[in-house]
UniProtKB/TrEMBL annotation:
GO MF, one example: ATP binding
The keyword Aminoacyl-tRNA synthetase is annotated on this UniProt entry: no
Domain ABC transporter: from-to ranges: 47-304
Amino-acid biosynthesis as UniProt keyword: no
GO BP, sorted A to Z: peptide transport; transmembrane transport
SUPFAM superfamilies: P-loop containing nucleoside triphosphate hydrolases
Region (Disordered): 1-21
Assigned keywords, A-Z: ATP-binding, Nucleotide-binding, Transport
Full protein name: ATP-binding cassette domain-containing protein
Organism: Haloferax marinisediminis
Length: 383
């Protein structure tokens, strides 16, 4: 652990390369290069967002609005994401950092305030789609929600619930619909299908309900699924089974998945790549192992140190993140994490961009400490 000794840039005479090794200057954040890892490294990009932003107006009085003082919550602020075919991309960060809003924008459940979203083999821009085109896009993208108890209609049998999207989109004959429902239930591990298809939700366990939700998403044969904390309400014993289904969908059916979760140990198990968000911005992104085993951003490092461990010897070293994530109203001058960062120095008031770090060529971090062109204060090691 080291602390930054306050000093001015001009006082720092020590060689920068001796202080910060393994750093290379990277391109600006708008041009994320394709990732290279495992078997997915050659896969085509399915979803790509550039400069994605979503701002919500804050409720204010009429007078304030009349004076032109409307303020906005910057839920998502200019992030880039790239997800390949058959890839599971994990999105993590503290509550309120904009994970769900990002998922909603990519699905076009929410209209982005700014930025572009490219989708499919042709990388068509879907950020402004409307009407029939938007309805067609919604066949290719599906969402799985957090709560399997709230997200299923209790009056429908499994068959009727899973078949409903086919009816809404007017897909197939009666027989084809039935076949697709069986196929989706089978893919999601509800086997033998005849034991589940005529049941009502109250006759199912939490894990089985979440598999039904997943089957409803899969029945349209989507290319992209946004899963928003899909296992957080499930018992640990059934969680592994549901996670396995996600992995199989990605590996065997080439479905791309945006997996949103607070649980970094779970993301390590399931994801190919991970993005860490803070106050609407992407702080660190890259191959899951690189980000979680060798975190470079002070925020990611703190998040990982805050993860509870079973080993009680490690409990003493557990870190609690000081300060709170406040709703971000308006823009921020400089680094979004600066008010809580122990390494803050004067350059942190300037905007940072994603920089390539580490040994892999798929690991990027938005922090001035990793910018070779920035003079940094001398780090003081403790202990
Ligand atoms: N419809 C809305 N109107 C106004 N503000 C909103 C709206 N939806 C989200 N926000 C704000 O946007 C920010 C990001 O919210 P979001 O739900 O995306 O966070 P999250 O990372 O998913 O949090 P959690 O982990 O708790 O689910 C929050 O400050 C939230 O209050
Ligand atoms: S840019 Fe500065 S404040 Fe932000 S994380 Fe890096 S050192 Fe901390
Ligand atoms: Mg959320």
């Amino acid at each position: 652990m080291w602390r930054v000794r306050p000093c001015t840039h001009t006082e720092n005479t020590r060689s920068r390369s001796s202080l910060f090794r393994n750093r290379r200057r990277l391109r600006p954040r708008r041009t994320l290069r394709t990732s290279r890892y495992g078997v997915r490294k050659m896969a085509k990009t399915l979803v790509k967002a550039e400069g994605l932003s979503k701002h919500f107006p804050v409720e204010t009085g009429l007078l304030e609005r009349f004076r032109g003082n409307q303020q906005y919550v910057h839920a998502v602020d200019g992030i880039d994401i790239e997800i390949k075919k058959g890839e599971i991309f994990g999105l993590a960060g503290e509550s309120g950092c904009g994970k769900t809003t990002t998922g909603h924008c990519l699905m076009r459940l929410s209209d982005p305030t700014a930025g572009e979203i490219y989708f499919g083999d042709q990388q068509r821009n879907i950020a402004q789609l409307e009407g029939t085109d938007l309805k067609k896009y919604r066949r290719d993208v599906q969402m799985v929600f957090q709560d399997p108890y709230e997200s299923i209609n209790d009056r429908f049998t499994v068959r009727k619930w899973v078949r409903e999207p086919l009816t809404i989109h007017d897909i197939g004959t009666r027989e084809e619909k039935e076949n697709r429902v069986w196929e989706a239930l089978d893919q999601c591990g509800l086997k033998p299908v005849e034991n589940f298809i005529d049941k009502y939700p109250h006759e199912l366990s939490g894990g089985q309900r979440q598999r039904v939700s997943l089957a409803r998403a899969m029945v349209l044969r989507p290319k992209f699924i946004v899963a928003d904390e899909p296992t957080s309400m499930l018992d640990v014993s059934v969680r592994a089974g549901v996670l396995r289904v996600f992995k199989e969908l990605a590996e065997e059916h080439d479905v791309s998945i945006l997996y949103i979760s607070h649980d970094l140990s779970l993301l390590r198990y399931i994801c190919d790549r991970i993005g860490i968000m803070y106050q609407g911005e992407m702080m660190e992104v890259g191959e899951a192992n690189a980000v979680l085993q060798n975190p470079k951003h002070p925020y990611t490092q703190t998040l990982l140190k805050a993860v509870p461990r079973v080993d009680s010897r490690n409990e003493r070293n557990r870190v609690r993140i000081s300060g709170e994530v406040n709703e971000r109203i308006g823009g921020i001058q400089g680094c979004a994490f600066k008010d809580r960062c122990q390494y803050r120095f004067d350059r942190c008031d300037d905007e940072s961009e994603l920089l390539e770090v580490g040994k892999t060529d798929d690991h990027e971090v938005s922090c001035h400490l990793h910018d070779e062109e920035v003079e940094k204060p001398i780090p003081v090691y403790e202990g």
